[in-house]
Amino acid sequence: MRSVFLSIGSNVHPEKNVPACLQLLKENFCLKQVSSIYETEPVGPAGDKHFWNLAVEIETPLSPKDFLSALRTIEEKLGRERSPENKFMPRTIDLDILPLPDYEKHAFIMVPLAEIAPGERDEKSGKTFREIATPLAEKMEGIKKVKPSALS
């Protein structure tokens, strides 16, 4: 078994798709930790709908290739469409294995990740996730926690 961090995002009916995604992850993997959900403004040309973002830690026995395939299957079950012409299009669910290139530059990734793994270290900088997330969160006015009642 190996432990993997995921970043999860949705800006198409997130109140429905985020809980459905978490349920599918629980059914397919050992879900160790789940962060709070944060509502964030879209980055780049992702439209004008706000995202719900969170981080999870999962244990899996799968190889990286098989794990990625399983995640893509979950995205497809939840209606995720991919377009090579527009990688920033709105999405029902987006599952990204961390670290990603430049992940440490984005509050919508680092704030939830630091919540569940504050002492984990970034391999490049050696800084803890909390050390990376703190200045990002201070500069990020558009990030706020989603109330738990929004999930019902």
In short:
It is built from four helices and six strands. Helices cover 33% and strands 22% of the residues.
* Largest sheet: number of strands, sense, barrel closure: 6 strands, antiparallel
CATH-defined fold name: Alpha-Beta Plaits
Computed over alpha carbons, the radius of gyration is 15 Å
SS-based structural class? alpha+beta
Overall residue-averaged pLDDT value: 89
List the uncertain runs.
Answer: none
CATH architecture assignment: 2-Layer Sandwich
**CATH class assignment:** Alpha Beta
Task: Estimate the helix proportion, in percent.
Answer: 25-40%
Distance between termini?
32 Å
Order of helices and strands: EHEEEHEHHE
Oligomeric grouping of the chains = single chain
Count the domains.
1
DSSP helical segment count: 4
Strands, total number: 6
Form type: globular
Helix/strand layout:
Layout: E1 2-10, H1 14-28, E2 30-34, E3 38-40, E4 51-60, H2 64-77, E5 94-98, H3 107-116, H4 129-139, E6 144-145
Antiparallel strand pairs: 1-4, 1-5, 2-4, 3-4, 3-6
